[in-house]
Amino acid sequence: MSRPTLTAVFVAFLLTSSVAKPNAKDKKPKQVVPAIExxxxxxxxxxxxxxxxCPAKCRETKEKVYGTGVFASISSICNAAIHNGxxxxxxxxxxxxxxxxxxxxKGSFANGVRSLSLPNWRDSFxxxxxxxxxxxxxxxxxxxxxxxxxxxxxxxxxxxPSSTAAPPTxxxxxxxxxxxxxxxxxxxxxxTVHEVREAGRSHPYFSSVARQSQSTQGKGPTQAGVHxxxxxxxxxxxxxxxSASVFSRVQPQSERKQxxxxxxxxxxxxxxxxxxxxxxxxxxxxxxxxxxxxxxxNTSYKxxxxxxxxxxxxxxxxxxxxxxxxxxxxxEPEDHKPLSETGHTKDCKVDIAFLMDGSWSIGKRRFKIQxxxxxxxxxxxxxxxxxxxxGIIQYGDDPVTEFSLKQFSSSKDLKPAxxxxxxxxxxxxxxxxxxxxxxxxxxxxxxxxxGAPNVAVVLVDGWPTDKVEEASRLARESGINIFxxxxxxxxxxxxxxxxxxxxxxxxxxxxxxxxxxxxxxxFALRKEVQSLVKRVCDTxxxxxxxxxxxxxxxxxxxxxxxSVGTGNFRTVLQFVANVTQEFEISDTDTRVGIIxxxxxxxxxxxxxxxxxxxxxxNAIKRINYWSGGTSTGAAITYAADQLFSKSKPNxxxxxxxxxxGRSYDDVRAPALAVHRKGVIAYSxxxxxxxQDELEYIATDxxxxxxxxxxxxxxxxxxxxxxxxxxxxxxxxxxxx
Length: 736
Hints:
Strand order of the largest sheet: 14-13-12-15-16-17
Largest sheet: 6 strands, mixed
Number of helices: 18
Distance between the termini: 114 Å
CATH topology of the domain at 332-543: Rossmann fold
Strand content: 15-25%
Radius of gyration: 32 Å
Shape: flat
Helix content: 25-40%
């Protein structure tokens, strides 16, 4: 081949290579990011590290988040990312890294998301901006933890009523007859059985009736069953209730017995444990053992139990909320022990109102169990004028006082009185009952002692048929410590039928599990007597409950005179922040205002100007030192005019004056004026403060409201004392 030809070929090859180079270059594989929903929890994804894409508007879902920076695995991934500032409410990509569990998860408020504190959890995760590092490829699909594996149940031979009804072809369960050999069944996933729920059939009682009808007769949802009793049916004081009502909770007289097998099979199912022993209502028969497993929501952890029908071996944990499984006061799965009158009642001076459920949904047998439970409680707490006093309200459509606090002064007298209570029937209007006790029950006429904390224990079968949040808030702000004992509460599939979602969290103080006691079965109720008594008699927790932390308007009146100095002034601001940190801050909870004074006065910010804790603490840090003289009397008058004149009627008015020297003006007249307006005044003197002026400023008794420290650096020591005194005073005079 000639030289020109070779040259032409070589040039053509070079041109072809240069043109093809960009297309031939290896491209970086594109990262596929799987999308998740707002409620997806990290513990539900079985990967150590992964990337996901969150949708928009997750903040509005208010999915739970536990922790700050490092979150418990039961937290929502998307809301944790918003809380951490990784994404905004418009959504985005998030990288999740798993890690071991922690002992303490601190709650905080950030970017519009409230995270809750948590004592401990088995595993954690962190979130970061969803921009993968160079060369790192995350899984393009997510591997989920199975929420509930299939379990095999072996059924022992049992004699049961035979049925002529052929089972539907869609079920694997064969109805045994009297001579049936042992058969093995495959457990049906729980979620499928709830598809047969109808509107108006949402209560646990109807679910139980459906279970009996379907399991005993093998009927499908389209088969006919026995109709509910009409108004004329001989049931005690039963009101006429429309069958179409979403609150229909009527209790048939025959009450869940074996011969109820032909009840309406369209009612949804629920796993009600049945006892193997002789039943209180006289029905006989042995419940065959059934293997049941319960899993912690959104995790791979579960508990298994073999149900023998003995209420003392029922595991109380499965129906607890995710938080309360590891809360401060979890139910203790210990053996049932004889009741003791001396366990937790030492110095248990409380006024207790029990709100017992008298609705038709509870039935006669469970109503009797409820009365037996109250008898047990009355014996354990050892009722007496020097200790706890106990009254009972029964609620249905309307509440009624069975007996007041002062009616019985001993446990011996209470026992027969409780046994004689007759079920009143109706709906489960808990909200109306809470309003009733707030307005009518804790009064001097009914035996309220004033110096004893007021406690209301609400027993609820399933869930209320009215809203409880507003009534509970007003009761708490009146100083009533509310406990909720929920028996056989709604499961995940039934919560859509509850009138007010998360009604327990909205009703009780805080969310640390102390004021809520979920119980999985009525037959396990009496096992929880000691646990409940321990809580209601824990006066330290009652004093420091949310009731004293959410109903205040607190004004700090701070000395900014020249003798304080810049460094010491920052120490005073840190003290103010430490006190403020302990309160629940919002427009409906505690509000804080601050005045700085010298010869003149300056309103740093007013009540309600900062309605969350983070904003309030930042505002305190930004206060600038003024410098000047000391006119404490004029500052007190200024606080009355600029702050307390705008205080809400339902708020307790508290003034905390901090000064380091004698005032140039009179403090007695201004202090007396604010005392007469109902302001509770605390005075804190430092270094050269005048003791007589501190006593004039403080509300009586002086020793509880006036404090003196020799130097600024010792201010922090009085934070717990002031918080304790505010709470103690609130609970010792709850009706003021």
